[in-house]
Design goal:
The protein has about 325 residues and is α/β, with parallel strands linked by helices. The chain folds into three domains: about 5-130, Rossmann fold (3-Layer(aba) Sandwich); about 135-195, Orthogonal Bundle (Helicase, Ruva Protein, domain 3), CATH 1.10.8; about 200-320, Zinc Finger, Delta Prime, domain 3, CATH 1.20.272.10. Helix content is about 60%, strand content about 10%. Helix 5 runs parallel beside helix 7 (about 170-180) and helix 11 packs antiparallel against helix 14. It is an enzyme of class 2 (transferase).
Length: about 325
Amino acid sequence: MELLQLLYGTNIIRIEDKIKSIAKEYVGTLDDFNYTKLNFKETPVEQIIEEAQTLPFLADKKVIVVEEAVLFTAQKTGSAVNHNIDLLIDYITNKSDDTLIIFAVISEKLDKRKKITKLIAERGRQIEINEMNEKELMNYVRSVFDRNDLEISSEALELLLEKTSYKYEAVHNEVTKLVLYADGNITVDDVENVVSVSLEQNVFLLTDFILKNEKQKAVNLARELILQKEEPMKLLHLVIGQFRLLYQVKILNGEGYQEDNIARTLKVHPYRVKLAQRHTRKYPLDVLLEKMVICRDIDYKFKSSYLDRDALFELFILEI
């Protein structure tokens, strides 16, 4: 096994799961003697290297996890710690100890121009943690329920994934709740009663009401989200982002792009593209452009007006 590993991606839970899987493969059962977590933003490079070179206590091998390893990305460290990166480069170049070091960072991409990023690719292993696709999510959910002697109907599974916007982190959390709640077979009613609707799904629904001109439903949903402590400005920008996505998907569809290609081009989750395509078939491009213009004007009002934000957001829904 490579003793230098770098994990990156945007899915925190999947990254944590992968870290533990790699660590267990190397040392077996994890405990305080063979498994140490350090935070790069809080820990000087000298301390990381010293910990790596110190022989394990009451263990044959050990693992060090360095979280928030932003040095491999274009992100700023955002830390008062003064890091000696040259010292770390020298350690990686000449690493001779048996410690497995796993660097982890929440980021869509690495800065491959950096010397240290190139070095970790040469001397170790880089692993990108992607979002699960629909089939992988279904297999994951069924495997969890199988381990707990539970079954879920196809209809209930589809509803679960829709309410969580096909996001692993949300699916993971809601599956945990269902395991505690259910007894035997998990039904659509169980999912309706237990699983929370994601903010992304609510924004899609809100946009759907707006496009269908169902103003009262849209206002009611907006009020419900605000009662849940969602900020009107945040909701406005999410709705604007949804209209922008619809507009972009409409254009790319017209150019012959397929769903997967659109998701990669726009760098969005494939599920968002799937939802967007349901709308783009119904509405011409000029209608979506008109909505975007209204969004721009309302955004200006939000930033320049002293009026109540909740009232402004309802006004936006009524105007659009």
